[in-house]
Amino acid sequence: MSLYRKPKSLTGGGSPESSCVSMRSDRSMEPPPNFSSGDCCDADVRNTTDGSKDSIFQELEHKLISLMKKELKIFKSLLSPDYPSCSEREEEDDEDQIRVTEILKEQFQRMNEGMSAPGSSTLVNEIYTELYITEGGSEDINNEHEVRQIETASRRSQTQETQIKCNDIFKVSPEQTKPIRRVLTKGVAGIGKTVSVQKFILDWAEETTNQDLHLIFPLPFRELNLIKETNINECLLRLLPVIKASRTADLSYCNLTEESCSSLASVLRSNSSSLTELYLSFNKLQDSGVKLLSDGLKNTNCKLKTLNLSGCNLTEESCSSLASVLRSNSSSLTELNLSDNKLQDSGVKLLSDGLKNTNCKLKTLKLCNCSIGSEGCVALTSALRSNPSHLTQLDLNYNNPGDSGVKMLSDLMKDPHCQL
């Protein structure tokens, strides 16, 4: 949420001062849901997501852009010596601000509670519970749920926390001399951070509090992230002809997702593709993305020899998909980098099933920092003894093979058939 505070004067003012605010409710609630993506999402209470939401945001965006342009013109005219006390333009600005206020009121006055039925919503003012907000604290994420906080509250020194009201978070306390420009709210999912922002905006739109703020711009990070992801995938689609015609494509650190893998797999399946090296390190591809990518790697048209998937949030499931690629007689892969993924011993065991297959052409395998122990080393040693002629480089740095694992690998390298 971005805030624009009404200027009190044309001169003066100090530098910004930050304030950290932690929040917890004065009543208990169920723990937040555990989503399969692994990312905790504070969605115990969510905003309404009916069909009118998109149109509301589009209209709001148009009005805010128009209003901001006029605001900049006003500031420019304020510096002019012949600036009048009132003008028709100011009246138009007031009308635009009223329209923006009405849009915000319509958007934020209602909300859905928990797993309520689609289309049903409740007035925020009817169900809102005042939060227990404290000023101060570090910028570390608070991993305690409210119940635990209430249990330990009696043991904390009262001087550690200063309680403030939600609508006072931007007000300067007597001991502060600089205006507060930024406020950080922290707390576990479901504690009420999003709802408190919704209530703050609603109170401003209804002109009950926070009237020293001239404008409020709600910028929901969930929607922004979705737009960002969509734009990245729309961008990748435009690059596909270039990637298809190239021998090497480096798409590391590009915020690619599962949907991106589907597009890249189509390139690998194309009989006109010239791609032989693909670098995708440190993208959020996850196991589902690698599964899609593997379908392209097994295609007879695929010419890819080098694949870098380091730091892509992969687990043992990806090892299963890639093992099927290594077993495929149509695979051309000779170098595979899976470093910085939590494959663990279970994942290496699955990957080893592909390594020992006679169709495997892999020469370089990088498994740095993959949480591999002695059991993983047993599986690798067994696979390479079964098919020792192909692999020439194996990188196991930053793992924990133990003495037994090191001994097995050392004995393997003494084997005259081993090419490591």
TrEMBL record:
Pfam families: FISNA, LRR_6, NACHT. Keywords: ATP-binding, Leucine-rich repeat, Nucleotide-binding, Repeat. The keyword ATP-binding applies. Residues 99-171 form the FISNA domain. Residues 1-48 are annotated as: Disordered. One of its GO terms (molecular function) is ATP binding. PANTHER family: NACHT, LRR AND CARD DOMAINS-CONTAINING. This is FISNA domain-containing protein. It comes from Triplophysa rosa.
